[in-house]
Amino acid sequence: MDKTFTNYFRVLQITASLGFLTMVGCASNVSPVKFSPMANPTAEIKNQKTLMGQAQEVQVDVLAETPYKKANEYLMDAQKLETKGTSSEKIFESLGYSKAYLNKALENAAVVRPSVEDVALARIAALKAGARLFPKQLNTIDDELSDMTSSPEQSSKIASQDKLDLQNQYQSLELMAIKQANLGEAKNILSVVQKKGAEKITPVAYKEAVENINAAEKIIETDRHSMAKIAPASEIARVSALRVFNLLASEKNSRNQTPEQRAMTLEARDQAVVKANAITSEIVEESSMKDKELAKQDERIADQQESITSTEEANKLLLDKEYDEKVVNAAAAQFNKNEADVYRQDGNLVIRLKSMNFASNRSDLPAASFSVLNKVKNVMKNLAPDQVMIEGHTPLFQESCRFKF
After folding, report:
1. Is-contact 186 241, C-beta < 8 A?
2. Contact (Cβ atoms closer than 8 angstroms) between residue 34 and residue 96
3. How many CB atoms lie under 10 A from the CB of residue 5?
4. CB under 8 Å to 64, separation ≥6 — which residues?
């Protein structure tokens, strides 16, 4: 289910219930919601109007038409009573029924919605496109949807084909609205010039305008939600239709001019065209220069970024080297010259032990060697180098023993 629907219903259901007693009754006979004695009629009417509007935005007015209409009727009654200065008790009675019926509408719509979700989404798209500009068509389709959802308990049995037909009708209305929004002005101009005889007086310009409008319509029909494609095509259609209108006006004016006046008009027009072309060329040149400057800036930024990266890499290598030296120096400081040599080799920290000698043909260590091993242990614990190599040898055969931790 669309998140917009879900979120709206949660807000509406929670907001409608705060501060009021729970509604009781059945679908055809509801009891009015009771208000707190401290409630303000004006504020509560305003709040109810807001809730009604939010419900309408999520299609409750068509998914649960009967209770929604009842809610609206009682709301209008409450507004009239407030205007007349009627007592709060009477106002709250009407407003209570309005809230009760709105709650019922929300309940019914929640039951119906899963069965007609695609239809509801198509209707929302049509409304966003401007379908309210075609009230007759919209009302006709809405009536069909209202009839289809009038019995919530039967909503799961609605025929798939009926839902598909309604969805297609809303999509067709959406397409109509998009065309009107983007090509309405061009079509209106073309209709006017056609009545004035543009097809005969300015046939070439008229034909071009018709072709441009048709081309824009094709784009809308192909990709109705791509304004990146629709906007420029629609503007071309509008400009070409306006050109026909201007040409007709010029032709009409020229009928009352002398030959010299017509020549002067053409001269002025030519001068205006030359001036306009010069301005256009200047704008194009300036734009080109700006593009080149932006390209140079991009190159400079890229060079700077590359330089920064190289510097960062060099700094990292230097820091790694400094760290290695610190590790080696710190480890070497743990031993005296007779105990071990410490150095870096092939990325490893090597500790070559001198004083830890095994007896010949024996694997046990002399007690004196344990202090040296404790120092090795401290190096590994405190410095935590990535790789440590421990080297030693027996005194008799000088065979190297290497340990890697």
Report:
1. yes
2. yes
3. 22
4. 104, 105, 106, 107, 108, 109, 112, 149, 152
The pLDDT tens digits of the residues spanning 92-118 come to: 999 999 999 999 999 999 999 999 999
Cα separation of 291 and 297, whole Å? 10
Domain boundaries, the chain: 3-176, 183-260, 261-327, 334-404
DSSP state of 258: -
Enter the pTM of the model. Answer: 0.57
Q: What is the pLDDT of residue 61?
A: 95
pLDDT digits (tens, 9 = 90+) for 30-63: 899 999 888 999 999 999 999 999 999 999 999 9
CB 48 within 8 Å of CB 119: no
Nearest to 350 by CA among 405, 305, 311: 405
What size, in residues, is the chain? 405
- Distance between CA atoms of residues 211 and 243, nearest Å: 14
The pLDDT tens digits of the residues spanning 286-323 come to: 767 877 887 787 788 877 777 777 777 777 777 777 77
29-30 and 340-345 beta bridge pairing: unpaired
Whole-number Å distance between alpha carbons of 369 and 250 = 112
How many angstroms separate the CA atoms of 66 and 101, rounded? 9
Structure-token pair, residue 169: 């009708």
Radius of gyration of the chain (CA): 43
Q: Please state, in angstroms and as integers, the Cα–Cα distance from residue 7 to each residue in 2, 226, 364, following that order.
A: 9, 27, 76
Given a contact cutoff of 8 angstroms between Cβ atoms, the answer to whether 230 and 182 are in contact is yes
